[in-house]
UniProtKB/TrEMBL annotation:
This is TolA. It comes from Photobacterium ganghwense. Pfam families: TolA. GO terms for cellular component: membrane. One of its GO terms (molecular function) is toxin transmembrane transporter activity. Residues 128-236 have a biased composition (Basic and acidic residues). GO terms for biological process: bacteriocin transport.
């Protein structure tokens, strides 16, 4: 309900209350209460008591009637006021209901308008989506057509490339097989070359080692020969003196015979073991020497100086190394007994690395 409708209802109610008040005031009797002016003239009137009683009775009746009429009028006015008040309340209730109905109607109208707008927007969205879907379908159809054309073209190209790839793969397989054979031949050749190079390097190393050992042995031999020459000269002088000394003892030595011979043999064997140990201590042992033997004969001076060393059998590589060891020792210890010395000067030894 609008505000001006409520204002009209209030004005109507106020007018009704104003009319009620005027009606109440209009029906009131003020004649009996007004004082009559007093005059200066005095008139003598003869009053009949019966008439006065009758008049007074009439006046009381009139007043009672007027009072009753006034009460009836007031009661009617009150009834009218109550009716007007009820009518006003009813009008206000109706106006409130009308206002509530109007608010509901306005709310329903707003909701209906919002629903209408929502439906319109939804229809617009649906129409837009439909239009967009139709556009997308049209574009998709066009794209599908183009894709089919491109797919057909790509399929033709793929088949052509597949055939070319098959031919290229066959050629590649042929080249791979040829390359594999070439690489296999190359690997075999490299392996042969590597093996030959290793053998050559081993031979070169062995030759170099043998040459180094030979040079060292030759130098040692020359040094030994020089020392041996000096020793031989000294030995000749010693032997000349010893021959004179031993000439008188030969008979005694022959008498002692067997015991002396055994002693010389044992001592010769003991010194032979010492010489073998010295040679093996100075021997450059290789893995290939293990388990092999070399028979070597040494020619020594009386003071143990090496005059010569020669091999008489066995592994030649081991014998070369053994002779180099003999040269490295250069001088072997000698006993004081000339008979033993004589045995040791041409001793034969067996060298066998363990």
């Amino acid at each position: 309900m609008k505000k001006n409708d409520y204002t009209v209802a209030v004005i109507v109610s106020l007018l009704l209350h104003a009319l009620l008040v005027v009606a109440l005031l209009w029906g009131a009797d003020f004649s009996s209460d007004k004082p009559k002016p007093a005059g200066s003239t005095i008139k003598a009137v003869v009053v009949d008591p019966a008439l006065v009683n009758q008049q007074a009775q009439r006046i009381r009746q009139e007043r009672a009637a007027a009072k009753q009429a006034e009460q009836d009028r007031l009661r009617r006015l009150e009834q009218q006021a109550d009716a007007l008040e009820k009518q006003r309340q009813e009008e206000e209730r109706r106006l409130r209901e009308l206002k509530a109905d109007k608010l509901k109607a306005e709310k329903a109208a707003r909701e209906a308008e919002e629903e209408r707008k929502r439906v319109a927007e939804e229809r617009q969205r649906v129409a837009e989506a439909k239009r967009k879907a139709e556009d997308e379908k049209r574009k998709a159809d066009e794209a599908a057509k183009v894709a089919r054309e491109q797919a057909a073209k790509a399929e033709a190209e793929r088949k052509a490339k597949q055939e070319a790839a098959r031919v290229a793969e066959a050629e590649r397989q042929k080249q791979v097989e040829e390359q594999r054979k070439a690489e296999e031949a190359k690997r075999k050749a490299e392996a042969e070359a590597k093996r030959a190079e290793e053998e050559r390097q081993a031979k070169v190393a062995a030759k170099k080692k043998a040459e180094d050992e030979a040079r060292k042995a030759e130098a040692a031999r020359k040094e030994a020969e020089r020392k041996a020459a000096e020793a031989r000269e000294a030995q000749k002088q010693q032997e000349a003196a010893l021959n004179e000394l031993f000439s008188g003892l030969e008979a005694e030595t022959e008498q002692r015979g067997g015991a002396r011979g055994q002693f010389v043999a044992d001592e010769t064997q003991r010194y032979g073991a010492i010489y073998t140990q010295l040679i093996q201590q100075n021997l450059l042992v290789e893995q290939s020497f293990i388990g092999r033997e070399c028979v070597i004969r040494m020619r020594l001076a009386a003071n143990g100086l090496v005059l010569d060393a020669s091999e008489e059998g066995g592994d030649r590589s081991l014998c070369r190394a053994a002779k180099a060891a003999v040269v490295k020792v250069s001088q072997f210890p000698m006993p004081d007994d000339p008979a033993i010395v004589e045995k040791l000067r041409g001793i034969k030894l067996i060298v066998s690395p363990q």
